[in-house]
Amino acid sequence: MAAPLKLGLAGLGTVGASVVRLLAEQRALLTQRCGRPIEVVAVTARSRNKKRDVNLRKMRWLRDPMALAIDPEIDVFVELIGGEGDPASTAVEVALRAGKSVVTANKALIAKRGVELAAIAEKQGVSLNFEAAVAGAIPIVKALREGLSGNSVARVYGILNGTCNYILTRMEEAGLPFADALKEAQALGYAEADPTFDVEGYDTAQKLAILASLTFGTKASVASVYVEGISSIAPADLAAAEELGYRVKLLGVAVKTETGIEQRVHPTMVPRSSAIAQVMGVTNAVTIDAHGIAPITLVGPGAGGLATASSVIADIADIARGARVAPFGRPVGQLTASKKAPMQRHEGGYYIRLDARDRPGTAATIATRLAEQQISLESIVQRHRDVAPAERKAGSVPVIMITYATSEDAVRKALAAVRADRVISGKPQVVRIEKN
Amino acid sequence: MAAPLKLGLAGLGTVGASVVRLLAEQRALLTQRCGRPIEVVAVTARSRNKKRDVNLRKMRWLRDPMALAIDPEIDVFVELIGGEGDPASTAVEVALRAGKSVVTANKALIAKRGVELAAIAEKQGVSLNFEAAVAGAIPIVKALREGLSGNSVARVYGILNGTCNYILTRMEEAGLPFADALKEAQALGYAEADPTFDVEGYDTAQKLAILASLTFGTKASVASVYVEGISSIAPADLAAAEELGYRVKLLGVAVKTETGIEQRVHPTMVPRSSAIAQVMGVTNAVTIDAHGIAPITLVGPGAGGLATASSVIADIADIARGARVAPFGRPVGQLTASKKAPMQRHEGGYYIRLDARDRPGTAATIATRLAEQQISLESIVQRHRDVAPAERKAGSVPVIMITYATSEDAVRKALAAVRADRVISGKPQVVRIEKN
């Protein structure tokens, strides 16, 4: 039997404690699977005295992550502190420079400094694994980095934030406005007191930047991701989606287009029959469209102590077995710069909802403005019935349109013209459609 | 740059030709990802003259798989001949004994001789990879062997045969009887002229034996799998399933019970809201229930040249990168013997459909017989309406029952008693329920 793999674990929150517990419970199985035992030999966390309900007796307690990162006894530095800044950031860098492999669940850090850290790992000949950074227990990093390594992937997209999916699910199921569904999510612990990071799409953007890098070899960069959250989605949009055969999901989408790799996060209408549309509540899912084959979709828990620990341990097990893969699937020198997607050049179908003035000529004006931009309509619904009293506005009638594929630029121009014509009240609602 | 990985490829059917084509198309990407080029240096197939539409000019043509298996130039023997017997079986063994790694898509061979071949691979220090043997392009072998290697998995189940899922989908969608849906599948090339192997569940059983081994460390053994096909399923069952909130799928299920690992293939009622219930047509899917976390489901194409080639190439890429994992996830010496599941001890809910004699006392008799076996009913539907004319039998009325969890033994005894009472005509229909 080979020597044990020795871990230093920084961070003993829900995930850290789950990792310690799962490693102990699964010790025999992991030893079988890896050919050697895996041992946590040292730990560190902000508070030593917090009650944690895990057995830390055989582990040395170090004063801070930096001391742990250079501890001569450890082979692997497991970073479960979180956050793009220090202490996590410097500790991971120091550990890599000291020749330790690193396993982390830190999406913010990998999205921000992943390429730079991967370069250090590569130079040192060590691993930098981050399966848990995206979609919790779903082995999506491994699937993209290894399982589909020979495919020409055209598009990868997913539901990467359980908070948003829970809110959209409840809005659809119970007809709740966004604010009420958010409150419910907060009461259940699915959303933070300040929900901005989740509901405005930034969390999804970090994960998407990582997926795009693994898939297309771009340098992970959140700055290259177009981001739009779900706070503007109204129950009326979910009801219209249902009627038209769609569901609204907050998707992160990375797709190869003629102009490059487009990375975007926004509320999206997906066909109700698609695998991704079936994903409800806090569950995450990722779909991969590879050339010439039907889509592959991975669905599972995106958060939670044990779900995240599951992926952390798989990453550790790979190191224990001696398997080392380039962090982003190819050498850092071959990763290409990411460019921000010019959304005005985005092409696709659009859902548009307008509050039209209820007077003669309105429909004709709207139709003319769309036609001027060469936009063809797949469907248009205008009606007085079926508007919930709370959403009814005096003198206005909702008009809902689904366009055939067009450019975002055309949609923006047409709607600007419609607004200038003063035939609608308020801001038009626009949701991009993603076909499967 | 390291030396190229040299492949010998046996079998140039749809899959073999797709592998050659995809390796050529993705050469640059694969070289990046693996740190070395991958080259097919020699091939063999039954007919040399068949038109294949792939460029074989730079490859040596060997006279038979055996010659290829011991060819001194090759590092990896890629077996795409298929079938549990020769030439595939001996050629794979000979290649392993000659110190070559082997990549195969051959489920029949792995299900039959996998353990024995894994022992040779282990002794020789080479890889035996078979991602493509189960669920086509879905990276399920990798997910179970590596991605979830630290989890305590309680159950793995899936739709592993596209033919059956297509037939059940069409029976449900179009109300077709089994025979008509089968004919349609045959016309579309989804089912063989002799469909027995697929529709009676044997194909699923081979794949399940492999999944069970990867998950629970049992020795892959088809003989340990209880097998029941879909040919007895009637449109009436699919209609009743719909009404009761279920769908009927042919599942392969491996589950840890108090008496050991139960491996079974049979038509199954799954809750309509489950991820697996959404999988329609020829698509495959596998769900993994690990301790303490929500289920993980992988969905994708289960067959086809490119889908299978995708997994074959991922296996090859792992070898090119130098990653070697025990074929069944742990050393052969630690795999445990499989036992045939004693189905009479299976516990779960049951769907039962009877053609009851339409006369006083029938319902009471049936209820009494079930009660004698301590079977509680979740629901019972008996009615004269809603029976399609073609399925109506003079003097009989369908009775549909869903039981709470009970043992198969109890169900069999109760139904034997009901038959002996002569209150039903024909054979009772029984479908097991799998809860998510």
Mind describing the biggest β-sheet of chain A? 11 strands, mixed
Fraction of residues of chain A in helices?
Answer: 25-40%
The general outline of chain A is: elongated
Gap from first CA to last CA of chain A:
49 Å
Radius of gyration of chain A: 24 Å
CATH topology group of the largest domain in chain A: Rossmann fold
Low-confidence stretches of chain A: none
Q: How many E-type strands of chain A? A: 17
Provide the number of structural domains of chain A. Answer: 3
Largest interface: A-B, 60 and 60 residues
- Provide the residue-averaged pLDDT of chain A: 94
Oligomer: homodimer
- What CATH architecture label of the largest domain in chain A applies? 3-Layer(aba) Sandwich
Structural class of chain A: alpha/beta
Q: How many helical stretches of chain A?
A: 14
Strand content of chain A: 25-35%
CATH class of the largest domain in chain A: Alpha Beta
- CATH-level-4 superfamily name of the largest domain in chain A: NAD(P)-binding Rossmann-like Domain
